[in-house]
Design brief:
alpha+beta; seven-stranded antiparallel sheet; 31% helix; elongated
Length: 258
């Protein structure tokens, strides 16, 4: 068994070395802290909300395909998952290379420890997607994060990437479901987990609060029929729809009628 593991490790190192031999790095730039604002037009505040530390952005030609490989180092693995979860959407293939990864037509995204990795390719061809998988193996250490979905949600989650979103501030909440902002307008410390069902109906929202008084205040804002579970510092609720539209706004209107 030990020999088999050793052979596998040597083969992996050989494959990575072979990958580097077929790669041309056309440019590489590093951004730290507030320098991120000089890299992207808008969106920087969202990354900073999730504890952005450093970005290494590379323009690469690999096996005849053009790629942009961006590695964002965040404060913690949970921060990396949070920023990844907001961007991971419409996955053609999910969680097949590591713990959290999402392949769409022109992008492969992943979480690697406390890093969010984005590999963008221009052609969208099968060859480009295959090459993106190979770049993943070069730039992603092992795809492990050490994080897990909260136990309150474990029974609701069948597939994670593309369906589970983690938010730790107003910008994150607004990026996923802006109608939740008013529920949180007087809440100081919170985390929000959002699970989108495949049929887009009865999506699940888990609020984790730092203060029990804030939790009680939030519970009073949510109609009883929408609360699935609640505790001293958490509330789990379901969204519902009328004529196909999210009806979180109906909760808000109901609050104002009281």
């Amino acid at each position: 068994m030990t020999n088999k593991i050793l052979v596998t490790a040597i083969l992996s190192i050989f494959c990575v070395g072979l990958g580097f031999s077929q790669m041309e790095v056309k440019s590489e730039r590093t951004f730290t802290g507030t320098a991120l604002y000089g890299f992207m037009n808008g969106g920087s505040d969202l990354y900073c909300e999730y504890g952005f530390k450093e970005l290494i952005s590379r323009e690469i030609v690999y096996k005849g395909e053009d790629f942009t490989v961006d590695v964002y180092t965040m404060d913690t693995p949970l921060d990396a998952f949070g920023i990844y979860s907001i961007h991971a959407d419409k996955c053609m293939r999910a969680d097949s290379l590591g713990k959290f990864d999402c392949l769409s037509k022109y992008q492969l995204q992943a979480v690697d420890g406390n890093a969010y990795v984005s590999i963008v390719f221009q052609s969208g061809s099968n060859a480009a997607r295959k090459a993106a998988d190979e770049l993943y193996r070069i730039y992603v250490t092992d795809g492990r994060t050490g994080i897990s979905i909260p136990k309150q949600l474990s029974y609701t989650v069948k597939a994670c990437s593309g369906t589970v979103k983690y938010m730790k501030g107003k910008l994150g909440v607004n990026s996923v479901q802006s109608s939740l902002i008013e529920l949180l307008d007087d809440i100081a410390g919170y985390e929000v987990w959002y699970v989108e069902n495949p049929d887009k109906k009865n999506n699940i929202v888990l609020f984790l609060l730092q203060d029990s008084k804030d939790c009680s205040r939030l519970q009073k804002k949510i109609p009883r029929e929408n609360i699935i579970r609640k505790g001293e510092k958490f509330v789990m609720m379901k969204e519902y729809r009328i004529d196909g539209d999210l009806n979180t706004y109906a909760i808000i209107k109901k609050l104002h009628r009281k």
